[in-house]
Amino acid sequence: MTINDLSVNPAGFDRDAFLEDWHWLLPKDAKPVMITVMGDVFAQDPNGAVRFLDTCEGSTETVAEDGQQFQTLLKDTNFVLKHFHPRRVQELKAHGLTPNAGQCYSFKHPPVLGGKDELDNYEVCDAAVHMSLAGQIHQQAKELPDGTVVSKANINTAGSSKPWWKLWQRSRIE
After folding, report:
1. Can you give the pTM of this predicted structure?
2. Distance (Å) of CA 116 to CA 17, 64, 112
3. Containing domain of residue 77, as a range?
4. Strand partners, 74
5. Does the pLDDT of residue 52 top 60, yes or no?
6. C-alpha torsion 162→141→87→63, nearest 10
7. Could you give the CA distance from residue 104 to residue 114 in angstroms, rounded to a whole number?
8. pLDDT at residue 24 in the model
9. Which of 6, 21, 77, 114 is 20 to 30 A from residue 158's alpha carbon, by CA?
10. Domain assignment of residue 174, yes or no
11. Does residue 161 register a pLDDT over 60?
C-alpha cells in the first residue's frame, strides 16, 4: 500500500474553504496539504508548520516545522502507521468500502456522538462534506462534559455557498 492509496486526491477542492468549519481549532489561513483516506488532514499554518487534524478526536497537533520535514516524515513507517491507519483501510476495503476520487471514509454515527469504531459504522463520503460535518459536530460538542448524551446535532447549511451540500445524502443525526 502506498501513500497514494492512503490519501485523497485534492483536485477539485477549494483549498480556501476546505477547512472553513475547523477555523475554531485551526488558524484561518491554514491550508490543507494532504487529506488521508480516513478523513483526517495535514494542514500548513501561515508560518509553515504542518499540523495533523484528527477529525475523529476533534484535535490537532503540530507534526512538522515545515513542508520539507513533513515530506521526510511521510517516509517514516511509524508516522504513516499512526496517522494514515493502513490496517484499518485494508479492513474497510475487504469489507466492501472503496472510496473514489474526492472521497474518504467517514463514520455514519461519529464516536463523539456515541458511535463505535466498528467496520459497519463506516461509509464512503465526499471528503469536503466529511470535513464540514465533522468540524461542525466537534465545535458543538467541545464544551460538553464527558458522558453527556447527545440527541441532536445542528448542521448549518443556511446561506452556504458550498455546492457540495447537495451531495450529502445521509440522514441528519438525531
Report:
1. 0.84
2. 29, 30, 9
3. 7-167
4. none
5. yes
6. 80
7. 21
8. 94
9. 114
10. no
11. no
Residue 89 belongs to some domain of the structure: yes
pLDDT confidence band for 150 (50 / 70 / 90): low
Q: 144 in helix, strand or coil?
A: coil
Q: For the chain, what is the domain count?
A: 1
Which DSSP category does 169 fall into? -
Q: What is the pLDDT of residues 74-130, one digit of tens each?
A: 999 999 999 999 999 999 999 999 999 999 999 999 998 888 999 999 999 999 999
The β-bridge partners of 60 are 53
Is the residue at 173 inside a domain? no
Q: Strands, DSSP E only, in 65-174?
A: 103-107, 122-126
69-84 pLDDT, tens per residue? Answer: 999 999 999 999 999 9
Q: With 0-12 CB in 10 A as exposed, 13-18 as middle and 19+ as buried, what is 39?
A: buried
> Identity (one letter) of the amino acid at 14?
D
Tell me the three cell numbers of residue 120.
459497519
| Residue 172 counted as domain residue | no
Which single residue is written with the C-alpha cell 515545515?
66
